[in-house]
Please model this.
Amino acid sequence: MSEPNTEGGPPSDGRSLRTLRVAQPERPLRPYPDGWFMVARSGDLGRRTAIPLSYFGRELVAYRDGSGTAVVADAFCPHVGAHLGHGGQVVDGELQCPFHHWRFGEGGRCTHVPYAPRPARVGLHHWPVDERNGLIWVFYHAEGAEPDYRIPDVEEATEPGWSRPLLLSARWNAHPIESQENFLDEGHFNPIHGQEGPMEIGLETDGPFASATTRLHAPVLGPRLTFEGSAQLAGPGFSVIRARGLISMAVMCIPTPIDEERTEFRLLVIARNPGRIRLLGAVIAQFLRAYTRLHFRREGEIWHRRTYHRTPSYSSLDKALPRFRRWYMQFCGQSAGPPE
Model:
């Protein structure tokens, strides 16, 4: 079987992508939870060219307007349906269709038809966008509601003394919940990550936000190191895990649903520079990226073959998972999850 793509973007051929389509029972969770989801990195958007995106079972287009603000819109021109992300250009701050050069400006309104005396009374649907932590986010809501929270700032992504974020990306046949609940799943740390002994994970929830803490003893190239770990969650599409110890790191965990079967899982690994040698933090980050990739693949092989039990058979040690799933249900149009 081909390995899942772990370097970002689509697999190099359709065959490797199809290997991830594993027959499963229908999932009771809604495939597209309500919330903020990453769709691109800030550096992906230039000043003149639009890029295509495929998320939430839809084709989208992203570009920067005349002020440099990121814009994400539905991809197909309302004229005769050309895809604005393939050949679309930004002209005078507005998105120009590659087919007939219709232009769309603020709010998606058509502003220019080159062969007509006045613009057409049509427009493109614009999505709520927030550019934060060097990433571009869109807000999805099944009923079109406006955003009611924001992704928090991650100081490690911009402050001096930390490496630049290094990306891991894979597309698996799985629901976005997989990566979000992973840190709360005490039982998997021993067989997957080599944790010694039982773990205690504390979980606190506050509306669309949640936080968790734990202590992890894990082997890193032989020696077993102790990390004080914490996780900060914001909605169904973002969490940041921070570990403090001999090596300090922050990992942003970001799942974005592609369609009803597949999710793009991204990890952005950031390491602290422990000394005055500026390149040392970058070297540590590269090492952590390789180490994280190994464990990321192990979990992904399970995720994309896994089904979702609405009422799991928990053990007495699965204390955080029931609370987490009850919290997560608010993003899936459900008031409560499985009983605690």
In short: The first strand starts at residue 35 and ends at 41. The helical segments are 14-18, 177-182, 189-193, 278-303, 320-328. The chain is about 15% helix and 30% strand.
